[in-house]
Structures are given as C-alpha cells and as structure tokens.
Fold these 4 entries.
Entry 1:
Amino acid sequence: MKAYSVDLRQKIIDAYNQGNISQRKLAQQFNVALSFVQKLLKQYRETGNIAPKVRTKQTPIKLTPDQLAILRDLVIKNNDATLDELRIWLAEETGVLIGRSTVDRMVKRLNLTRKRNHRRHKQK
C-alpha cells in the first residue's frame, strides 16, 4: 500500500491543531483509518515530522542459497506439485519448514512457474 501524501498528513495535523475535533472525526473527515490518525499524531508529537517513515531494513530471506537450490530442483522435477507438497518435501530435504505463502514467494524469486494439473484437483 502506498503511503499517504505529506499534503494530506499536513491537512490532518492542521485540522487537529485547530482544536475541537476528535481523532475519530478526523479519520472520518479525511477518509482514513483511526489508527493512521493516532500514529500520525504520535509521530508528530514525538519527532515533529509528518513524512512517511522509510523502511530501512528489509526482512531477511527465509532460505539460504543452498536451500533455494534444493527448492529450485524440487519445482523443476515436480512442476505440478502443490505449494503444500513442495513445502513438505523441502522440509524433508533441509529440515526447514516454511509456510505455503513463503514457498510461493521463493518460487517467484527463482523466476519459476508451476504447471497446474487440473485433474488432480477435481472433486469426486
């Protein structure tokens, strides 16, 4: 999600500083979440800055390069496997159990595609 503009943030701060308006009413007036107004006001009080916070540290990748190579091999050999199957096989090979969505992100990171076998998923 894209951060709210500094212009909108300034309008919220200005409206709050004029007084006699609750945070809830501010949120309704500017069509933003109450939690956003609360965090913005807290940030403004503590730092005097209203600019969006810049994410400085990326979440580290869950798998090592060796584990990614194993996942690559699994996907290439079993390109119609489900994400659950891939995560279980990866856990058996590496001892690392990751979530289904993480498997999906890692497969995308490897620029691999999976073929879906529709016969496998038909209901009986």
Entry 2:
Amino acid sequence: MSEEAEPRESRATAFTTLAAGPDFRHELEVRRSRFITVIRRTGDEESARALVAGLRKEFYDARHHCSAFVLGPDRDIQRSSDDGEPSGTAGIPMLEALIRRETAPGVTDLSDISAVVVRYFGGILLGAGGLVRAYSDSVSSALDLAPLVRSSRLRICSIEVPHSAAGKLENDLRSAGYVMAETGYGADNTVLRIALPDHADELERAAEGLAAMTAGTAVLRRGETEWIDVPF
C-alpha cells in the first residue's frame, strides 16, 4: 500500500487578501450597463463557486454573472468564467485585475479572493475592447476601496507566567510590537501566546527580548505555525 504524500508547505510566508467580514460590493455604470462587483474572501473552490451560485439567485434577472478567483498562499489555483460574454472579454480581464494587483510597490500577492461581476445590459453594445475595460475596471475599482489585510504564516510561541505577572508582561509585549494570539489560563499560571515570523533569527531575538523583560524567569516555547491576519 502506498503512503499518502505529506501536504507541501507553501513557499510563500505571506499574502494579501480581503479583510474578514462581509462581502465587499461596488457598482459602475458603463454606457447604461450596470456592473455590480462583489468580492469575497474564499479559502477553497467550493466557497468561491458558492459565491457565484448565491449571486445568481440574488440577481436572477441579470444577463451575466462573470467570475474570477485566486486561491492559496502560492496563488496556484486560478479560475475565471465569461458566463456568456464573448470569450476572453470578462473572466480573464477580471482574473488579471486580481493577479496583477499591486499591494505594495512591485508586489503582486493578492490571493484567497473571489470576484463576481453581475452585469445588467443597458441596451448599448460595448464591443470586445469595451467589455474588457469594463470588467477589468469593475474589479480594479472595487479593490481600490476594499479593506485588505496581510495574511502571514507565523510561529505561535507560548509564555507561561504566574497570573500576577501576566498583565504587565502582556503590556510589555504589546509595547514591543509583538502580535498577540489567544491567551490561555490554568489553575496557577497564564499562558500568553505571541505570533512571530517563522525565521530562526526572529525567534532567537524574541527569546532574548523575553529574557530581558522577565529577568530570565520566563521561557519562550515554540509551537505550530498558523496563518494570521495582520493589518497593513
């Protein structure tokens, strides 16, 4: 019996995505046609396709529900659909608006994101070039306004201290700029958790900083990695 392959760890350590919360919506009008863009954070193909299915029901009388999505830290899943528009005039321009989006100078790392553009035809033909611009601009304009965050792969490290010392140490850690994760409580001790970049030098620096804060009485214990949202 062959052994099941271990899942490959992502090469990426961070990517940009939509902030957690409701779908983001934005509307453009181009020569009487309405282009309603809906952007959702999606972690898999099932949820991306669920967005399209839901909008087909909500906007049941619209002519087109074109879509594009990019998934995974390495952006290795990319799909698009023209949904009845001339081939290459809707889905691909939408997908390119997602994958070519600069989230920082020279950085294109938008992922785990789906975009659907619902079109109500206004009676005026736009032509192939006009459609490409309209669908691309619809997604780009929505991204200009959408709340984006940085999702980073961080190492969750724990620090066990007496309850009486936890409050001060947490304040010191926050003041030093550390990202705090969920705090745990035991009978005698508090377990503070901090999220650190998964690099040996960063972990060593944090251990040294903790030793200085606590006069060597607290120990940094390394745990698993998690993807955590970090605001820009």
Entry 3:
Amino acid sequence: MKYLSLSRLSTLLLVTSIGNISTGYAEELPAPVQALANQGLTIHGQFEAPGGMRGYGASVQGQDMAIYLTPDGEHAIVGTLMDDQGNDLTEAQLDEHVRVPLEAQTWELLEESHWIQDGDENAPRVIYTFTDANCPYCRQLWQQSRPWVEAGEVQLRHIMVGILAPNSPALAATLLGADDPSAALHDHSNGESLSASAQPRDIEEQVYTNNQLFEELGLYATPTSAFQRKTDSGNLRIDRIQGLPSDERLIEMMGSESP
C-alpha cells in the first residue's frame, strides 16, 4: 500500500469537502465580492493588498482562491497577484486566511469523531488514524507504532470505520461498544479473533458518522492517518498518509526516530 502526501490542493480538499463546515466572513462585503459569494464562493477573510486594492481569501468546491477588490470598490478580480520580480503575492495570503483556519476546523472534526485511544492520554503527539477491523494494513501500522506508543511519545486515536467488508461496520461497533475499547482494540490488533456482537443504536450510529467523515474527507484507503506539523511561520498544518507509510514517512508521522 502506497502513501499519498498532501499537495496544496489536496490539503484544501481535505478541509473544504466537508459538508458541515461553514466558515463565512462576518463583515458586510463590498457588492462585487458579495456577488461572488452569491454564486457559491465562501469568503473566509480579508487581507491587505498592494495598489490600493483589498484582498479576500475564498474557496469553492475544494479550490482556494484570492479575490482582489479594485480601489474604486466597483470590480473584483479573481486570480494570482504577482510583483515586478515575478513573485507570487497570493500564496502566503491563501495559506494564512483560508487553509490554516479551515485545517484547524478539520482537526476539530477529527477530535469530535468516535475514536479509540491507543497510548498515553498525555502523550505530546496525537495522530488520528481511520481504522477498519478487517484491514491487515491497520494491524501492521498498529505493530509499527508500538515503540512510540509504549514510550509515551505518541497517542493514536483510531477512528473506527466499516468500509472494507460486509461485517466491517458490525466489527467497528463491537470495538467501540466494548467495556474497554482500548483493550479490545489492543487484543484484536495483536491477532486475537474478533466476533461481531449486537450493539446499541447509538454505537452503530457512531460508526455511520465515522464512515461519513471518511467519505467527506475524500479518503479511499485504510489506514489513513492525519497529524499536525508546525510550519516555519509557526502555523499548525495537517498532513496525512493514506495507506501504510514507508519507513521514512512513519518517522515523519511519529515525529521522531524510534525510541
């Protein structure tokens, strides 16, 4: 199984394909910008722009973009602004005013999903990973992560989904509904046989909600793991790996060499 790292576009797709995210700009918009909002663009924030213009960060259908309002306030230009040296003046603004706040909301959605804790709750690094009980690669990732988890450096939060086989939803519900979900996942990931058992409706709905999140994020493989990294500017960004990570990417995801 290969991994897929996020490009700038797929990073945005991760955070803007979610149906229940609504990040609107609170202040009244100039008429040309409002007209674009009426056509389906979401306006996220305003930033300073050269030449007497005002800039607005926006997105639509997974595509981020900048809108530049002309000094007279009568026209809006959608595109990339370049200086006389050919430098892109738009990219950094999109990062700050669109991607960073949207990714922060995506992280909140992951936090609010239904997951099983694997590791010390006070571990300095948290990784969310979408896990299917029928996925051999998920069990392999569980094994590979033991050094970091057992050293108290990483907490894995397994978002249980049921997508790979007809009994996957029932197995996910069985693990989520166990008396000790962490112990049940530990035993299953360590090779113990797991049989589905009837669960209350609210547990079944937790699996359904996790499946919806998996789909809305545009994911296609288990495990898919999401983790935060800090940029040079100090912003927290989300990176993800779909499938089993390579040795190099595993170290990147865990945040250090094996303890």
Entry 4:
Amino acid sequence: MSPDPAAPVVLDDIDARPGSTASLLRTLIGLYLRPLGGWISAADLVSLAGDLGIPDAPARTGIARLKQKGLLLPERGTAIGYRLSPAALPMLERGDRRIFRMQEMTDDDPWCLVSFSIPESARSVRHQLRRRLHWIGAGVVSPALWICPGHLRDEAVQILDDLGARRWATLFEASAPAPAGTLPEAAAEWWDLDALRAEHEAFQASLAGLPADPFAAYVHLIDRWRVLPYTDPGLPPAMLPADWPGRRSFDAFARLSARWAAPALAHVRAATT
C-alpha cells in the first residue's frame, strides 16, 4: 500500500522514554504490524502489550494516543482492530535502515552541509527544522549551518520538504572539514559527544536487565536501541576518540537481535492466529 501524499507526515517519537508505554507500543507496532499484513485486532494488540509488562488500561490509553497521532487507523476486520497508517510507512522504513544497519563514515566519505535563512515570520519552522536535523544526527556548525554525513542528504531534503522550508535552504556536498583546531575538537563542538557516549554506555549497561522471555527481550532490546542510530551519526575515526563505544553498542545489539528476532516473531504469529 502506497502512502497518500496528502496524508499528514507521521514522525517517529524519539523523545519517548525507552521502556515507557508510548515507546514500547511504537516499537511493537513498528516491528510487527507489517509482517502481520498491516492489521491487528485490538484485543491481540493489548494482549501483546501485556506480554511486555504493560497493563490493559495503560495499553488501551497508549493505543488511543497513537491513533490520534496518525500511526494507527481504526478498522474492523474479523474483530475491532487497527490498521497501520500508510502515512507511517516512510518513517518505519527509514527506521529499519537506521536501526538494523550501522552506518559508520570513513575518513574519505563526503559530508552534507545544510545552510538556511528562515524569516522571523516562520520562526516555528526554523525551530522544527533544527529539532528534526538534530533527530537525524546532524551537527551544529552555527545556528544556520548544520553538517551531517553525506548519506543523510536525502533525509535532510525530506525534512526541508516536509516543513515547506526548501526555498530557504541550500545544500552543499563537502569533503573533510578544515576547522581552525583539530577534527576531534570540531566534532566535540558540533555534536554533544559526551552525551552520546553516556547514551551508549547506558544502553550497554541496560542489556543485563532484559527480560528472559525472547519476545519481551527482543522488543525491549529494540526499544532501548532504536534512538541511538539516529542521534549518533557514525562519525569517521579521525573525528572520534580511540575508545568510542559506538561499535561495541552495535555489536552487542546485533548479537542479541540475531538470537531473539525469530522466536519473537513466532510468538507474535502464534498470539494473533
């Protein structure tokens, strides 16, 4: 099913706290509604949420909020249920590319610079643009000049188009930056590397507390990981400290994901037949 170009844009909520009802429901829906054909009964969705430790009442409230945000559409099939909104597909496909494949730049890869001058009359657009560029892992060279890996150029263009801001922006492809100081110093200024390191270390520490059940373990794993591949742009080695934890995080994620993905899907299929 193709997205309706007139439909509102459905965005991933990377501000939702991992482990919260909102975040776990989004992760559950993003992982399994497409393999199930795009539809699930309300009862089965609430039951699967229960398998994640979400009581019925908060689950129903959370599902209603996702319907309001446009992620789910009410649709009666063999029972009362929900269909995945076609407008959510680009967001979910973008998430698949980020979550399951770690993209690390080499020192020779190109960069994309996004320069913009948005009038004061559209300051809300300017705020949203900065917020969404941050979401995809772009760094701040100056308030109106942002930098991101070249492979994120299409995502930057899509953000500009979504916000109607393309007319105020110019994109440049660039080779390695030449800051006044060293590249690691520039990276630490353009990105909050201390915060990113803390996020990686928190993710790694959280793995010891995953549930024993494969379905719950897998969904919680994805839920704890899914924001990091957005906020960490995968900077090249020349810009990072030698002990950068990004690769360790991804290797741990990939190992556990390979262990639990198949039994988790089998659980979902058995629970929805």
